[in-house]
Amino acid sequence: MAPEVVDVRILVTGGTGQLGSAVVARLRPAGAEVRVLSRRAAPDVVRGDLRTGRGIDSAVAGVDAVVHCATDYFGREAQLARTLIEAARWASAPHLVYVSIVGVDRVPLGYYRAKHETEELFAGSGLPYTIQRATQFHGLVRALLAGASRLPVVPVPRISFQPVDVRDVARRLAEHALDDPAGRAPDFGGPEILTATELAQAVGEAAGRHRRIVPLKVPGETFRAYADGGHLTPEHREGEITFRDYLAGRVDHGERDHPGDS
């Protein structure tokens, strides 16, 4: 059971998203007063837009920590961070907790570069901060493989992944928010490192499909970095929920892909 926390106010950006909502679900039972930031009006949220800055000053005012789960896949990751940092400077200089990705400094992918740039913004902000890199989420890995699993023959890249569950990452982020700033925290990885072939087999089995899987070597600098394990953290396997556990949970909640899809 989480310890009781007294008079701790925490803002979670992107708090209605998959990761953010899991962080909120961890913090509230611990006794923290949680503000959920969202661009869209909804019950129990503070409305604000990190892209325009509208509502951010009031959202940050008076909080002890901010867990920054909001993200942008279209090149504005750093812009969101700058807006948050500027608001935090004018507020009470809260502890900023940022979730990043293992390998952002090793894999030359545009989104990874943006995450790495954002890490540097937090580190150079002069504000108390914690940066937590995590490996790829289960849901992302499943989404990458689920479409191909409908084909008669499933091509997969000849690389491995270390998928981690958002609930495990949320647990670690909540711990950071309730603790002292750690700077760059140790990486956080899933419990297993599996080849894309093994992961595709698991996805197919969960969907009731049995397909031939063909691993392929994919050219290019990005896939070479993946093949070299730049996105893995073998020494950090603190995640507890395995990929098959995650898939089984989707089936239990009625989210299984239709077996007749092909």
From TrEMBL:
Residue ranges of domain NAD(P)-binding in the record: 14-135
InterPro entries with a match to the protein in the record: ComplexI_NDUFA9_subunit (IPR051207), NAD(P)-bd_dom (IPR016040), NAD(P)-bd_dom_sf (IPR036291)
Family annotation (SUPFAM superfamilies): NAD(P)-binding Rossmann-fold domains
Pfam families the UniProt entry points to: NAD_binding_10
PANTHER family in the cross-refs: NADH DEHYDROGENASE [UBIQUINONE] 1 ALPHA SUBCOMPLEX SUBUNIT 9, MITOCHONDRIAL, NADH-UBIQUINONE OXIDOREDUCTASE 39 KDA SUBUNIT-RELATED
Protein name: SDR family oxidoreductase
Organism annotation: Amycolatopsis plumensis
